[in-house]
Amino acid sequence: MLVIRRRAGETFLIGPDIQVELLEVGATQVKLGITAPRNISILRKEVHVTRMQNEAASREISTLELASLARRFQK
Amino acid sequence: MPHIPTKYFGSLEYRDEDVVQFPCGLPAFEEERQFLLIEPADRAPLQFLQSVRQPGLCFLALPILVVDQAYRLTMTLEDLVSLDLDTTRQPLIGSDIECLAMLVALENKAPSVNLLAPIVINRRNRRGIQAIRVDSAYSHAHSLAGPEAVCS
To answer: CB distance A72–B150 less than 8 Å?
Structure first.
């Protein structure tokens, strides 16, 4: 992992088009400003992984599998 | 009473008050705003979140306390506001809200639940949200494999 040090007000680039500015540094949070082309999607990581999990969770489950899942939790 | 076709239970009769409204949908399913929470006795403690609009869309979930008895819910202020919950404290699982963990069960893989983003339903107004945590206290893919999965 690349680690760089920046102060509030400073900026770095990812590729030629994506610019990240460190707007504010607080005790427990930092505020970032991101400038990127429209086709680049920017998501908080927890939202991204939840989207992926929801897509996986929407797939069909067989009746057999359902029964065995329920049994796992029954006493 | 109205009926809807469901993914796993054929045509099902329901009462309007059993429908849970998700004002923002669910991540990746933002257009699905209404779900029916189905709790069949013979599949307990599994619960099913059936989309009212799309018969083919039904999620499986488990009460979060079944997965982790000590689960500590931390909702953001924004999420509390969106469910019209008291913003001065975290809601109580059971009395204020229902809290479910979305289940992922893919073939040839141990099932897992998303503890990072529990489904929270306000019991008073039947409004729901997938409350994504901003901390990293819980995993988005908590595995149910191994002996601890058998609830004792």
So the answer is: yes
- Cα dihedral B152, A58, B130, B82 sign: negative
Q: What is the domain range of residue B14?
A: 3-145
Averaged over successive runs of 10 residues, the pLDDT of chain B (152 residues) comes to 91 91 96 95 92 96 96 96 97 97 88 96 97 93 70 48
Could you say which residues from 59 to 98 on chain B have a Cβ atom under 8 Å away from some Cβ of chain A? 59-60, 62, 66
The answer to whether the CB of B46 falls within 8 A of the CB of B36 is: no
User: Can you give the CATH number for the domain in which B41 is found?
Assistant: 2.30.290.10
pLDDT of residue B27: 97
The neighbouring-strand residues paired with A20 are A12, A34
Torsion (CA) B4, B9, B11, B16 in degrees, nearest 10:
-40
ipTM summary value: 0.89
Tell me, yes or no, whether B77 lies in a domain. Answer: yes
Domains: count for chain B: 1
User: What is the reported pLDDT for A27?
Assistant: 94
